[in-house]
Amino acid sequence: MDRALFTSATGLAAQQLSLDVIANNLANVSTTGFKSSRADFQDLMYQDLQDPGSQTGPNSMLPTGTQVGLGVSAGVTRTINTEGTLQQTGGATDMAINGAGYFKILMPDGSTAYTRAGNFSVDGTGRLVTPQGYSIQPEVLIPPNSQNIAINSTGLVTVMLPGQTQPQTVGQITLTTFINPSGLRAMGGNLFQATVASGQPVDSNPGTQGTGTLQQGALESSNVDIVSQMVQMIILQRAYDTNSKVIQSADQMMATTNQMKA
Q1: How far apart (Å, rounded) are the C-alpha atoms in residues 76 and 36?
Q2: Do the Cβ atoms of 106 and 46 come closer than 8 Å?
Q3: Residue-wise pLDDT tens digits, 154-203
Q4: More confident residue, 214 or 162
Q5: What is the rounded CA–CA span in Å between residue 190 and residue 33?
Q6: Which of 17, 43, 46, 54 is deepest in the core (most CB within 10 A)?
Q7: What is the pLDDT of residue 262?
């Protein structure tokens, strides 16, 4: 009965972590470029009360053993990297990635971050920056008085300048891919950081080396599926209730045992 108490307690803790993950997913259902996560569970170690194949007589053995599990571990949280739907915005500096890849961002401390959110703006110096003011890499500078900013599917940025009849190239946007994008570390602010698990970043022009293409005037929406998240939350709640009832049953059995008289 003590074992049942502690085993069910691990179930409650695991379901609580899963609920935390679902809550974060639902909170970011409208976040541009957000990638949902899920909690992956795994069973804990087992107590071997009898090993399979143990001798039960001179010419007999157990066909199966007796193993009692000790609960569940929440294991890891995994990022779901499916693409969100593309929504038209009409913004000249809005970009959506249609396929694999991340925008490369320069952080204030000189480190590099990556994002799928393409809601860029032009700052006071003409740089193409994120909503936090972090510059895209390679840096793209939009000249003053530029007109008709155009970004094609391969990342080439051109503008029309007053008095000119031909567009002028002002930058080339690249995309970064990883062998294991689920291994990226989420930093908040729609930003990710490369890790040993993600593999080395590979920079290339959009549409080459397996990267996606760019679509100007559009943004990638969150890939959170509200219906599936709600279904998972209902299943989670039932599992939590069941584990709590096991604890109550084990407690009642212990109370009954304590009240037994010779």
Answers
A1: 14
A2: no
A3: 999 999 988 888 999 999 999 999 999 999 999 999 999 999 999 999 99
A4: 214
A5: 7
A6: 17
A7: 52
Q: For 31-61, b where at least 16 C-beta lie within 10 A, e where not — what string?
A: ebbbbbbbbebeeeeeeeeeeeeeeeeeeee
* Mean pLDDT score, 70-78: 83
Q: Hey, where are the domains in the chain? A: 2-46+70-81+224-257, 86-220
Give the span between the Cα atoms of 136 and 63, in whole angstroms. 64
Residues 6+ apart with CB under 8 A from 244: 8, 12
Question: Is 90 exceeded by the pLDDT of residue 66?
Answer: no
Q: Are the beta carbons of 6 and 44 closer than 8 angstroms?
A: no
User: Which residue, among 254, 24, 206, 221, has the nearest Cα to 103 in the 3D structure?
Assistant: 206
d(CA 179, CA 217): 28
Q: Is 210 helix (H, G, I), strand (E, B) or coil?
A: coil
Would you state the structure tokens that stand for residue 260, as one six-digit string? 């037994």
Give me 195's structure tokens: 């890790």
β-sheet with 168-172: strand ranges across: 147-151, 156-160, 168-172
Token pair 């698990």 in the structure block, residue: 197
In the 8-state DSSP scheme, what is residue 195? -
Distance, in Å, from the CA atom of 11 to the CA atom of 62, rounded to the nearest integer, reads 31
List phi, psi (to 5°) of 60.
-140, 155
